[in-house]
Amino acid sequence: MRSSLRSAGLAAFLAALLAAVPAGPAGAQAPSAAAPAAQAQERKVVLVTFDGVRWQDVFRGPDPKVVGDRQFVNPDIKDDVIVPAYMQGADPGGALMPFLHGVVGREGVLLGNRDAGECAEVANDMWFSYPGYNEILTGKPDPGILQNDKIWNPNVSFLEYLQKRPGFRGRVAMVGTWTLFPYIVNTRRSAVPVNEGFGGSYPTDVKTAREGLRLLHRHDQRVVYIAFGDTDEFAHAGDYAYYLTALERGDDFLREVWELIQADPFYRGQTTLIVSTDHGRGDTPLSAWQDHASKRYFQLNPDEQPQYNETGVTGSGNVWIAAIGAAVDRPRAGDYRGGACAQSRQIAASILTALGEDWRDFRADAGAPLAFIKAPDR
Ligand SMILES: [Zn+2]
Predict the structure, then answer these.
(1) Chain segment 311-367, per-residue pLDDT in tens
(2) Distance 160 CA to ligand 1 centre (A)
(3) Residue 36: per-residue pLDDT
(4) What is the pLDDT of residue 196?
(5) Assuming Cys at both sites, which of 161, 258, 361, 367 could form a disulfide with 346, CB separation 3.0 to 4.6 Å?
(6) Measured in angstroms, how far is the CA atom of residue 331 from the centroid of ligand 1?
(7) What is the pLDDT of residue 199?
């Protein structure tokens, strides 16, 4: 079915081969192995998001109070799965997400642990998905986005910008679990494929992961965005055990992607993996772990969850950001400790910078790149 699988790579190889042939007498020199090496500095980015994942769960691991409440975790699942799998050691966060805390913690940046004085947040004042993804992808909050509605996004994402740039055309793709993604990246206008061939609709993270890996194995994309959604779905449903297992699966997916990046010469040494979430969730009262959205949102929608009308879901605008790979300047993560706050609106410019593009050409009023993202050497 995918007979075109290798065609783009072959075309690029032939073009490089032709460029490597000297203009002198034909056949004077055999093409050297320099052609594939010339490809070795082609920057690439893999962006992964997990919908509505709290920094508390990422860094502290499972919340003992939520785990202990039979309304949120079946007591048998608690005793047989959650406690033994994640909560008996000294590092429950590391037990839940071993790749983020292990490899990324050592070699990259894992940012947003408020217990350690770090700060990461959204810049939009809504704290739910469409405003969050719009901010991540376009570099600027849009105060006109007030609902998760199927509205074609008027704002241009960095995906759309790249899709129209030389060197990126046809080499930008997205796969997402949520049916609103085609609207958010405006597939009508942007020419960014979202879940191509599946009508833009995907029911579970398992299928999203499979499609994401298929995109990476195509070896013709420079920007792949993979957006998971199970965490938010199961949090709203009050199923904390499933929320946790979705996180553990997500972490293992990141490990698989990173190992692919390390093993594959198409990606190795030239690829940056960036991971984040579109919003956080609450933690007070206890049941607020299920919920998110700002005071402003509830003022606009006072009948939805009236218990939040006065305060919003406190803290649900807090996020976390992870990055590892070619563009990551690890010591600069300290810029967001005890001082400035990293914001989701900086992710678009960070990705463009990691790719060697000038983010101001995309959007001069976008959030500036994160301090720990550096442009490639020229
Ligand atoms: Zn949600």
Answers:
(1) 999 999 999 999 999 999 999 999 999 879 999 999 999 999 999 999 999 999 999
(2) 25
(3) 47
(4) 76
(5) 367
(6) 33
(7) 66
CA of 35 to the centre of ligand 1 (A): 48
> Rounded CA gap, 108 and 330, in Å?
6
| pLDDT at residue 40, as a whole number | 55
Cα(129)–Cα(278) distance, rounded to whole angstroms? 6
Low-confidence ranges of the chain (pLDDT < 50): 1-38
CA of 233 to the centre of ligand 1 (A): 7
Distance 234 CA to ligand 1 centre (A): 9
Q: At 95, which helix (H) or strand (E)?
A: helix 92-96
Place of tokens 């002198």: 24
Distance 278 CA to ligand 1 centre (A): 9
- Give residue 219 CA to ligand 1 midpoint distance, Å: 33
What would the DSSP string read from start to end of 171-229?
-EEEEESSTTHHHHTTHHHH---BSTTTTT----HHHHHHHHHHHHHTS--SEEEEEE-
| 34, 22 contact by CB (below 8 A) | no
Digit-coded pLDDT (tens) for 248-295: 999 999 999 999 999 999 999 999 999 999 999 999 999 999 999 999
Choose among 231, 235, 233: nearest CA to 248.
231
Angle of CA points 112, 242, 305, to nearest 5° = 75
Residue 179 C-alpha to ligand 1 middle, in angstroms?
13
Q: How far is the CA of 201 from the centre of ligand 1 (A)?
A: 17
276 CA → ligand 1 middle, Å: 15
Bridge-based pairing of strands 271-276 and 321-325 is: antiparallel
Domains recognised in the chain with CATH numbers: 51-362 (3.40.720.10)
